[in-house]
Every structure is written in structure tokens, then in C-alpha cells.
Amino acid sequence: MKRLMLSAALALAVISASAQQKHSGYTLPDTPKRAAYTDYSSLDRGFWCAVQLTPAITSDRVGRCKGLAQADVVAGYRFNEFFRVGLGISPGINAGTRIFPKDGGGPYPIYSMPIYADVRGNIISQESRMAVPYWSVDAGYTINDGLYLSPTMGVRFGSVRNNFLVGLTYIFQRVGSVNSYNAAGLRLGFEF
Fold it and tell me: What is the pTM of this model?
């Protein structure tokens, strides 16, 4: 009887071992077929966008000082942290007045819609700093009026790709065929 039980146990062990050699019994899942995760907030290149507000004080050709409020939306491509290009639009309202003698001389606020190219970048690397100086130049055309130019120097606060912007800006804008105004203001924004 002992021999029979020993023979049966040995037969079961051999059958079990041969079955495991043919089929392991367990299969591992395949590697997923999806793309690898990309952390866009740490990339040096790629698309960027900025939203800015600019309150300013303007002066026209005859020296009248008034107020200006402008909202900017800029989108473009970032080559590295020192050079970005983009296109922007800046609807604004100037508290200065246009006077048309033909219409009886009624004053009213100046509404403007500049469309421009924006070039900007950091002055020093922001890789290990929370605040760095930056520069920006906007050059373009104001719909129905003329030339628009706005250089800015400021400081950006935040990470490499998400920043709060605080800067001092100068704005030159042609209004109509003979008028123009100059403005100095504070540019506040967020870039991502």
C-alpha cells in the first residue's frame, strides 16, 4: 500500500511538473499602448499664452493728460525661456477725446483695437529662481488708426511656465491721420 501511495504521489508530481513546463499558468499583462506622460509645465519649448491688463496715463500732442485702460491677450510659441514670439490683440479705451469740427466738435472717448506681434523673453534664467526680470516689445497696427508700439520691462514671478507679470510699459499709438498719444503705465498679467 505504501508503494502504491508513493507511486501515485510520484505520478502526480511528474504530471504537475510537465504541465507547468508547458503552461506556466500565469501570464503577465502587455505593456500599455498609450503615449508616455508629458509634464508640459516643465518643457522649455511649446505654445504659450498671456492675459494682461494695462492701466496707464496718456498724453496727446497738445499735452492733455488722460487715462487709458487696455486688456491684452497674446498667444504664441516659446523657443526657450529667453525668446518667445506671439500675436496679440489689445482692446482699449482712452479717456482722451477726439474732436471732429465737421460734426460740431463733440468730444467722446477713444476706443482702439491694436493687433500686433509680440516678442519677449527672460533676461536671466528662471530655472532656479522664483522672480526674474523680463523684456517685451509689441509692434503692430491699430485698426482704422495707425502705428502701435509698446516696449515693456518688468519682473515675472512663479515657475518656468506659469508666471505672474508686473512691468512698466510705454505705449505709442497713432490715432487718426494726424493725432497720436503717448502713455506710461503698469502692465499686470499672467503667462502660462
Answer: 0.71
